[in-house]
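Students often ask why inverse folding is considered easier than folding. One informal answer: many sequences map to the same fold, so there is more than one right answer. In these notes we will look at a single instance of the problem. The structure comes first.
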């Protein structure tokens, strides 16, 4: 049983679902190490007992807080814009960490952060802990099933996502009629979707996945209303992802609107390990 949990909270619904799941699982004390400019204070603050605002580049502050609370379990949740790394002011520890990395991506950066914080004695939990109810199993989740062309594009997207994830490039692929229109680099999900759907046009298929052996302490793929609304704007017809390896936020609302807008949402069995994991 986890008595006390600290959520390093970015933006979006993810930290909210995580906090509610932790409470339901019996966690007695919740803290939010809330990233300024990302964490939703209005909605997340009432769900936690302690609110600690931190800057994206203030690793020293986070490390010192963890050192003072060595028996607290730590969990990462919520979105951070990748490109914010180019506009953030970093403290000395963060600058040192980044200077030691010859390759900078989610795995190397967050892996190093976890190493630094783990040295304080805190236990770092998988980002899927307390999130089992938000991780869909295989199948079409919407009323509309993909047609034959879309099924083929899903298969291409699934194979390609494994390749780019294994090369630590990104997680998202946009496909239309067998043509790979975009793969994600450092720009993030929505920028990739925009680039690919602009090329593919109406009816483009988006696939989001992660490689085998993905570090589930951070950066677990997630999907919610914000992305769904963007898919509609870009006239995407299918969003597909790896079953048991994606956090689906606002499930009822997402599926209701996907049915209304004619967007098919599909969880594909990848044969990879499940992200379902309770502490």
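Output (designed amino acids):
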């Amino acid at each position: 049983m986890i008595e006390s949990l600290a959520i390093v909270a970015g933006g979006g619904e993810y930290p909210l679902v995580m906090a509610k799941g932790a409470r339901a699982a019996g966690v007695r004390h919740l803290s939010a190490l809330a990233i300024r400019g990302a964490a939703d204070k209005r909605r997340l603050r009432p769900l936690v007992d302690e609110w600690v605002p931190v800057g994206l580049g203030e690793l020293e502050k986070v490390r010192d807080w963890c050192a003072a609370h060595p028996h607290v379990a730590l969990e990462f949740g919520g979105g951070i814009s990748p490109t914010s790394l180019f506009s953030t002011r970093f403290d000395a520890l963060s600058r040192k960490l980044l200077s030691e990395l010859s390759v900078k991506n989610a795995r190397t950066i967050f892996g190093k952060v976890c190493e630094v914080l783990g040295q304080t004695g805190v236990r770092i939990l998988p980002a899927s802990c307390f999130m089992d109810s938000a991780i869909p199993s295989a199948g079409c989740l919407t009323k509309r099933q993909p047609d034959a062309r879309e099924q083929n594009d899903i298969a291409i997207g699934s194979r390609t996502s494994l390749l780019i994830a294994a090369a630590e490039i990104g997680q998202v692929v946009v496909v239309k009629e067998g043509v790979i229109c975009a793969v994600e680099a450092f720009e993030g999900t929505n920028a990739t979707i925009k680039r690919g759907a602009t090329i593919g046009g109406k009816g483009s298929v988006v696939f989001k996945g992660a490689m085998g052996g993905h570090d589930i302490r951070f950066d677990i793929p997630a999907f919610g209303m914000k992305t769904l609304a963007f898919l509609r704007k870009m006239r995407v017809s299918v969003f597909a992802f790896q079953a048991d390896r994606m956090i689906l936020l606002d499930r009822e609302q997402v599926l209701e609107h996907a049915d209304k807008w004619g967007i098919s949402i599909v969880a594909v069995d990848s044969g990879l390990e499940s992200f379902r994991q309770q502490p």
